[in-house]
Each structure stands twice: as structure tokens, then as C-alpha cells.
Amino acid sequence: MTGALRAEWTKLRTDNGTAWILAAICILTVAVGAATAAVTRCGSGGGCAVDPTKVSLTGIEVGQAVVAVLAVLVISGEYSTGMIRVTMTATPRRWMVLAAKAAVLTGLVLAAAVAAVAGSLAAGRLLLAGNGVTVAHAITGPVIRAAAGSVLYLALIGLLALGVATIVRDSAAATGAVLGILYVPPAIALFLGSDPAWQRWVERYTPVNAGLAILNTTGLHDLVISPWAGLGVLAAWAAVALLAAGALLRLRDA
Amino acid sequence: MEATIAVTGLRKRFGSKLALDGMTFIVRPGQVTGFVGPNGAGKSTTMRVILGLDAPDQGSALISGQPYPRLRRPLSHIGAMLDAAALQPGRTARNHLLWLAHSQGLSGKRVDEVIEQAGLATAARRKAGGFSLGMRQRLGIAAAMLGDPPVLMFDEPFNGMDPEGIVWMRGYLRALAAQGRAVLVSSHLMSELQDAADQLIVAGRGKVIADTSVAELIAAASGDRVTLRTTAGPAAMKVLTRIGATVAVTGSDTLSVTGLASDQVVAQLSEAGVRFSEISAHRATLEEAYMELTRDAVEYRAAFVTEAVR
Amino acid sequence: MTITAYRPPQQTGRESFAQSLHAEWTKFSTLRGWAIAVVIAAVLIDVVAVLAPRGDTQCGSGSGAACLAHVPTGPGGEAVNDSYYLASQPLAGNGSITVRVTSLTGMIAQNGGFQGPDSPPPGTMSPGLVPWAKAGIIITDGTRPGAAYAAMMVTGSHGVRMQYDYTSDIAGLSGAAPRWLRLTRDGDVITGYDSADGTHWTEVGQVQLADAGAVAGAVQAGMFATSPLDFTPNFPTYGESGGSTSNSVATGTFDNVGLRGGAPGGRWAGQYVGAGADSNGPQPAGIGFRETGGSTFTVTGSGDIGPVVAGMANSGYDTGTIADHLLGVFIALLIMVVIAAMFITVEYRRGLIRTTLAASPRRGRLLAAKAVVIGAVTFMLGSAAVAVAVIVGGNIAHDSGMYVLPVSWLTQARVILGTGAMLALASVLALSIGTMLRRSVVTVAAVIVAIVLPYILGVSGVLPASAAEWVLRVTPAAGFAIEQSVPQYQQVVGHYGPPDYFPLAPWAGLAVLCLYAAAGFGLAGWLLRRRDA
After folding, report:
1. Is C443 part of the contact surface with chain A (CB cutoff 8 Å)?
2. B261 and B207 assigned to the same domain
3. ipTM of the complex model
């Protein structure tokens, strides 16, 4: 297993695009979060309904697309060049290949996510305070939960994407499939307004809707699903995807 | 366990096409074994099955007595080059070998050794996407040699090589066999295999058609044929056909005589006083032998065929 | 012997664009996966139109279509509210009516939360004036709902306005009562004036009433008061729709009432026009008019004279537009832009582009041919699917009791073909991005993030309202504005958000997307020509 891990790490480290993608994750997340914070003001009437942490971390909705791209490249790139066969001759136990890719990918995503989340929160708090939104000076428990949860969220998105891309194999179709799984259900949830039962189901059990619950630090009793439970739903999706991917990897010809 | 590749009764179907239909052979150490056959004969499929990439419907493939997935550090048991273009273009050649080495617990030092062996020292730090076909082949060979394996398998290694490269490759393969390794080489270039291979496995329609040494195959195909160069064509023809040989005119002053040994032809012509300038016993090329052997097994024949000039 | 040079049997003519087009069409149509995917994308629009759940309206007389309100339509064909208390006299010929409005007060019911058509009696009314409470004078072509009219009025917080034929609204003097108002009728032409002191009059507007022939008949002129539903949105974010509505009443006090051209000895007669047609529940108490000494009158009314907007903001029933049937378009968009991107990036795999460019060395023409093929396919399939969705969705809405705001067939055609064009333009943009980036994974991600994601961010309520509006103006997602079939009205308070309303006007939104596609296409063509294959 160490051999496979080292090999995957060498692959990612020597590919000239990896550093750019990791930078893009950070920059895009911080930029979108900052832009959202810059235009957010307290609503009219007394009491600010704005959740400063959640607004600052809005960029995660976009950064997750880049995380998904990285995950797809890690596996689909090998299929498109045929290098997957070389990888499998070097490591004939295929579950090890998937596990090694997952481990190295997660490590890199966690690193980028920490930078992205820290940057978003810093920028967001600054901009929101400038807009007159009340931002607590102390870093409270919920804020830490939201920050740590967001980092985990991005890592789980990466794993989910890796699983789906391994199942789909073709790089363009995998990208479309992963981004579709991420972005279509939230939009559908909006339009299900007239059927609350379905809307509730979508908001509780689809990856992005559930996972993003972790961003909330206020109004927790109004949430459709509690923060950690939401992250758990996303983790379940990622686990299912990876298990299915591992099974297919073993059964299919290279 | 002796270093071998042992393939037994492989069967595999891709959809409606039967790619392998009972493929069976053994590749032994100390010699270069050529693996030839028409397009679609199942050579690449066999190689993928040996490496555990494709699962056969029936049969087994063992490397030194073990199936591929059971091998620990597989690249130190068997080194293979299947598709030289299976590279990510953005990565340098050295880094490509580096990750492969790391997967087997080997170091960068070993990488530099094989780079040197394969003659890629100057190009090692360039991006693999910019490599010519020949350089990619060398890179593939370097990758196969990373684990210093006793068994080697190359799929069409001569493709894209310039004449100098072909000469180098030929020598390299023979050297590897001389070191006691088992070497399996598939190729379409009969002329190259003729000088490089000792043993020949001829495949067709998913099974083995012939499994002999090169010398035997050529001898079997040569037959009893003599080429005669003479200005007195008609006279020679009369003399030779009178004693029962078959004579064909193959050029303005050459005849092809079948059914008589060369010394008998000489005796007959000298007795009759027919002058000739050259006489040679016909030695079939591997290409001819192969074409004759696989005539029935060819699946993809072009409609536009030129007559081979003998 | 020498061998003569080989001459091909037919001399091919010069390569034409038609040949490039044919080649690209063959490339596209012979890859079954792509053709199937685009067809599935189009079909999904209809699947969503059929499956998207719609609330089943319940009312006293049953559910679904039985509850479908009988909504009057104005002279322009739009759905209108025409409900107010009128104290009037017939106006046979030319004439005028002048009043001074001394006060405008109102009451708002504290219902909190949304009321259905058969809700319990209205809750307690407490003083309050909705922004568009109206009291003033009106000349109307009869009192049937949807009749043509012109009115001068004092409003709750928008000063003096002249409104006519439901959709038109002109501002007059600002500020509160007292204000002097006058309407004069000269044949078909009605002119409105206002004044602060009764002496110096300013013309506010002039209208030629639409149903010119009918005006000659039973025209009524008089005082009126009405007050629309008080709408408070539930959420501050853009995409979340819904709010609560409460009944309201407004009372206008009029004096110095002068009517010229009426029948001699005529008396003011009061009636509740369009009684209760759009209100929540039974008629609020206090509706009517009273003469309080001299020529001072108070008129109390409830309802609205104006267009109905989507989203139940000013109607007691479920309203929508044809855009509500097109909720699946963004899913089709996702699939189509992925296919469009792959159409070019697949050529860069394993050097296929070299074969293509060897066959078609005119690179600009090659890109144009690809754009025409992918654009035409997405346009035709998209338009067809949208047309089906509009028809089928309309029937489903009807059966579930949702009232779809009527629009002219020209507008419907614009929505159908415009949405098809939007899909085509987005596909061309995706093709251009693919030409620029060449690698398929990065292209597909870039295309989805640039074209589909802004739409999702804009409508899903994730962003605050101002950010979401900005996104729907500036990004390629602006093209979705073409789906908007009814205009926003400044004189109606409502929730103006997607899917029924977009920040940009329909053609403006499509133009934004068109600019993106053109710029992308130009840049891609330039890069394609410059680069090595």
C-alpha cells in the first residue's frame, strides 16, 4: 500500500496542473465569499437576519466545482490516456489504487480547503463589518464548527466526485455527471415549493443541500437538517460512490 | 520456479466477437519468443490477460507459476510495454518513471539507471507529450526494465523506430535473452523477428497455429525450389520439364524450378550443355512462411492486393 | 515502360461551407451517444413540466380546475383585478368630473400568514395604509369587470397618479392629500389633471380609451376607493418566493365634487364593482359610500384596479406564468452545453484534430460549421420541447387550479423560440470555450460554472437578493430572462423573482448571452487560427 500511496503522490505532485487547480480552489472560494459579503447588508427593520459565517463561506458553492474537477482529473485522466493500464500492472490489487488515489486527493483538498476557508472567513468578516453587519469578535463554537465542517465538506465532495468519475470513466461525461449531482438538486428543491414533502426530502438527503447545512451558525432550529447530520448524509453519498466504484473497478476489464 | 509465461486454454469474448479461442503456449527463458499473427488474432488481448488487465472467460495465465494479481511487486516479476502512448503529456519522462518506481518501492536512482540503459538521458526531463514515437517506445522499454524482471513482454516494440533504433532494439532483445530472461515480443515486422527471435508462436483467430523455432518454420516453408538465371530459357525449360520438374518463368532471364534439388538441376543442365549464370536454392523468408501459414486465418484482408514479386 | 500519373476519376470542386457543414453534421449525428443525450435533454424539459408538483387548489366548490378563478381581462388582454367601490353617475357625452381629496386612510387586516379562498373571517383590522391604496375619480366604460377606464387618484405612498387601462401608470403631484383631481372627457379622449390649490391645473396624462366604440354607451363617472392586498414577502433572499397577504380597505374623503355633463338632477349611486373578486374572504365591513353634509362624500373600498401579477401577491388565487412550465430548462442546458463542449474537445484527444484540419484547412469555417450544427440541433430540439412543455404545462396548471396569466400568442412564440435560442447560444458559447481550453474536463467544468451555475446561484436563494440580481444581469445566465412573459408593474407590489420575473427585460437578457457567445466565438476562432494543431 505504501508503494501505491507514494506513486499516487508522485503522480499528483509532478503533474503541472495540480498546483494551479489547488490555487483555483482557494482563490475562487475566497473571491466569491468576499463578493457576496461585500453586497450583503442587514435587511430592513430591527435585528440583522444575516448569518455572517454562512455569508462569508458562500464561495464554497463554487469552489466545490474545482474540487470536483481535480477528482475527475485524478482518475479520468488515466483512462483517457490509457495510463490506467500501467497503473494497474504496477498495482494489481485495484482497490489499493482507488484507496491510494482517495487518500492523496483528500490530503491535497484538505490543505487547499483550510486555506480557502480561513481566507473566506477573514475576508468576509472584514467586509461584513464594513457594511454594518454585526459580527461577533469572539470565535464561537458554531463558527469553529462551520469552519471545520466546511473543510470536511470539500474533502467529502472530492471523494464523491472520485467515486462517480471512476464509475463513469470518460472524463467529459464524468465532469458533467459530478457537477450535475452537485448542482441540479438544489435548483430542483427550489421549484418543488408546492410539494413540501418532496422539497423536504431533497433538502435533507441530497449531497449539497444536506452538506451545506454545516455552514449555518444561526437560526439552527429552523434548519431542515442539523449541521452534522447533513455532513453525515454527504459522507454517506461519498461512501456509496466509492464502494460502487471499487466494485466496478474490480469487475470490469481495465 | 523458472521464469516463464504459461498461458493455458484462454477463452474470451467481447460482445459478439470471440477474441481468444483456446490460446495455449509457454514462453521460456533464455530465448526471444516472437508472437505473431494477423490483425485481430488475439495477441494484444492475450497480453492484457497475462497482466491481469482483462479477465478471461476461461483458462489461466501464469507468470513463473503465479497468476498476476498474486504477485508482490509485480514489476520485478514481469516488465511489460503494451502501449507506448499511455502517458500523460504534461509529465516529464523521468517523473513518469518515478511514480512507477515509487509504486514498487524503488528509488529515483533506479530510474536514472534505466533511463541511461534506454538511451533517454538527454530527453529525460522533457515533457512526454513532446516525444516522438521512437522516444516513447524507448520510454516504454525503460519502464518495463524498472524492476529488473526475469520476464519481459513487449507489444510491437519496433513500431515507429528509425533504422538505428531497430538495430539497437534487436540487439537489446537478444542481450536480454542472453541474460537468461524470458522475452515475449509481438510484431508485424517479420524481417526484424527473423533476426531477433528464436522461437515463434503464430496465432490466428484466437488460437495458436504454430509453435516452433524460426529455423524449422522457414525450412518447412522453403520446400524444394531452385532459382535459375540463364539466357537460354526455353532450352533449359525443355531439359528440366523432360525429367518431370515444374518450371516457371519468373523474369526475363530467371526461372523457378520446383521438384528437383539444386545439384540435380546443375547436373541436368550441364549434361545438356545449357548455359546458366546463377543457381540458388530458394530459402523462404519468414514473411513467406508466415503468409502461407496464416492464409486461412487472415480476418482483415484488403481488397487491393499486390502480387509479391519473388 | 513508364507509368502514367494517376488522375482521380472526378475533379472535386472547391470546398464549400455546405460541405463543411455536412461533414460536421455527419460527425455529430453518427455518434449515437451525443444524439441520444441531446434528445434526452430536450425530453427532460417536458418530463419536469409534467412531474413538477403543483399545489392542488382547494376551494368551496371542489378542487383543482373547479377552483380556477374567473379572472377578467383588460383591453390589452392581460389578467386584471377590477374591484373597487364606485359612487357614480352616468356620463352620456362629453363632460368632466372634479374633486378635492382631503384625506386617505385605511385599515389592514392582521391575518399574518396566507389565507386561502375559504379562510375564516378576516382578523382584526388595524389602521394602516398600503402603499398603493387608491382613492380618486374614474371614468369607466361600464362596470363589467375588465372595462376600459381612466382614473386620477391619490395613493397611499406614491402621491397622485393617473392610471388607465390597468397597465398604465403616470405620476402626478407627490405628497399626501389634500389634492385636486379632474378628468375631462372629449369623445374618446380622456384627460387627467391635478392641482394643489384648485386653481392652477397641470395636465398629467391623456388617453384614448381602447374600446372606442363602447365608450359611446353607458359610461360612468364618479368617485372610487380601493385598496389592494397587503403583501409582505417571507424571505429576504431572491429566489425564495411566497409571502403573506392581508386584506385592506381604504377610505377617501372627497369634497368640492363637481360633475359636468351628467344628467340634470342625477344622484350618486354606489356599487361595489367586482365585489370580492380578488379579496381574501368575504367583504370587509365598512365598504360603501356616505354623503356627509354638503358635497362631502366618503368612499370606502377594497380590492384593486390593475394587472394581476404572478405569485399570488395581489390575487387570492394561485397565479403563474408560462415560465412556470419551464423549470426543467436548466437541466437540459446542463446536458447540452456538456455535449457542445465535447463536440470540439473530443477532436483534441489523440490528435484527431489533425485529421479534421487536414480535411478542412479553413479553420474559421470549421468552427462556424460546428457552431451551426450544434446551435441548430439545440435550437430545434429545445424549441420543440419548450412548446410541448408550455402546452402540457398549461393543461396541468388548469387541472390543478392554477391560473396562468394570459399572454398573446406572439409572446408565447417569443418565449418558445427565445428559449430555444438561449439553449443554442449557450451551446455555441460552450463550443467556443472548448476550442479555447481544449482539455475536456476543464472545459466541461468551466462551461458549467460559467453558464449553468450562475442561474442556479441566482434562483436558489443561496445568495442575498442584490447579489442574485447582479448575477442574473451580468453572467450568461441572463439569457433566461427570455422566459419572462409578463412585465413587472411598478404600480403593483409583488414578488418579482424567478422563474416568472428576471431583472433584465427579455430581449436584453438574451442580448447579454448573445454578446458572450459572439465574443467567445470570435476569440475561439482567432485562437484556432493562430495555434498549431
Report:
1. yes
2. no
3. 0.85
